[in-house]
Description:
By secondary structure, the protein is of the alpha+beta class.
Amino acid sequence: xxxxxxxxxxxxxxxxxxxxxxxxxxxxxxxxxxxxxxxxxxxxxxxxxxxxxxxxxxxxxxxxxxxxxxxxxxxxxxxxxxxxxxxxxxxxxxxxxxxxxxxxxxxxxxxxxxxxxxxxxxxxxxxxxxxxxxxxxxxxxxxxxx
Length: 146
């Protein structure tokens, strides 16, 4: 089963430091990512590459958690998280590039279905990911503008 890959880029008038600050503050994530109910940092101290995290979600009436880690963290440039459970392996990446006074923000998601039932629904997931990602980025744009 091949992975599901989607990337979406937006430009926002806020500088990369502001965009990164919102993405790096996991308490903000449920405000722009509708299926996220929280991200808990399991490693003490500030966010850093290698920090262990737990993503909690509610989607289609099903709630759960995925354990993960911050795979890459370069302030004002990149934030990458990797999550896995018995059903999926998920990589979430945000890259920021200064454009004038604003930021070009590219959000990439890679999902590898692992569980039998998830593999059965991979086609539906593949169709759903672009809509969810674009909607999340538009919510993030609104949060940044606040």
